[in-house]
Amino acid sequence: MRALVYNDLHLKPAGSGYDVDALAVPEDVDAIWIAGDLTHRDGRDDVALARRFVERFPADVPVLYVPGNHDHAPMPERVVDDVEGATSGHDAVREYESVTIVGWGCQRRSLEPALDQVAFPALDPRTAPCGERRYAADRTADAVEDALLDVVYGDATAHDAAATLDIADENVPAFSRSVDTVLETYEHLAGLVGDRSNVVVVSHLSPFNTSFDRHHSTGTREEDREAFHTGSIALKLLTRTHDVFATYSGHSHDFGYDTGDGGTGASHMLNLGFRGIGLVDIDPTADVFSLVDANAD
User: In the chain, what's the furthest Cα-to-Cα distance?
Assistant: First the structure.
């Protein structure tokens, strides 16, 4: 199948940066996915603009609009209401001939990390020398992912994970609560996927520990989290335990493509970056996942 995908367009009623009516819609697409932050706000004018954007598509091509943190749920429901062929993508499951699409979006504008590395000195890469922080962040992300994967599989407890990650005794209760939050989200996503095969997850948040989930801030040591991996740990764990063929995400405004170990093989992970537009060809039976950049900018 071929999907036309958008993420993080951040359209604005005044000076959106795009001429919405002039954006081309290819004729040979089977589906259209919007991975959040279609607009920069969720006011009345923004809803009207997003609706005009969605109404441009042919009625016989299904549109899945996943909410981002700037256009969080229930805004997409208001946008797609009575628009033929368009649905809100939050917690949505859509079956196509060759793949199953699972949509997962945001319910609020402010996003706090489920496991805040700053709260645990052993996980804070800023304790490393400045030139080594990026490497330290990568090692920490690997360790966190593997430790929580053991918890998901039942091979370890949250306390075991804390010991593996050298979490100080006084911080173990807070760490365990963070793990519980990650696992709650993981179980929710696992319930959406179930035992389905050839799943593609369309999510606003990127999977954790990828090349495109870095924090974008710079500043003082207390504020600078530039090296941190800030994607969804639960989503990354899902790709490793279930038959998730691919994830398509946004939020970080950072273009990237990774592959990771999936439940039944390699999982493709894509983020088109800020104002991303692309055509993605998907055929899990032939392990096809290819991209054509369709951004006119």
Answer: 59
Sheet holding 100-104: strands in order across? 92-95, 100-104, 199-203, 244-249, 266-272, 255-261
Q: CA 133 to CA 251: how far, in whole Å?
A: 23
- Helices 233-241/172-193 angle, 10° precision: 50
247 Cβ neighbours under 8 A, 6+ residues apart: 200, 201, 202, 203, 206, 207, 235, 239, 267, 268, 269, 270
Q: Say which residue the tokens 């990390």 belong to.
A: 113
Cα–Cα distance measured from residue 172 to residue 290, given in angstroms and rounded to the nearest whole number: 43
The answer, as to whether pTM is greater than 0.90, is yes
Whole-number Å distance between alpha carbons of 167 and 178: 12
Could you say which of 3.40.50, 3.30.420, 3.60.21, 3.30.200 is the CATH number of the domain covering 2-293? 3.60.21
Q: What tokens were used for 42?
A: 């969720």
Tens digits of per-residue pLDDT, 4-50?
999 999 999 986 566 777 777 888 899 999 999 999 999 999 999 99
Q: For the chain, what are the domain ranges? A: 2-293
- Number of C-alpha atoms within 13 angstroms, CB side, residue 71? 36
Torsion angle of C-alpha atoms 132, 135, 141, 144, degrees rounded to 10: -70
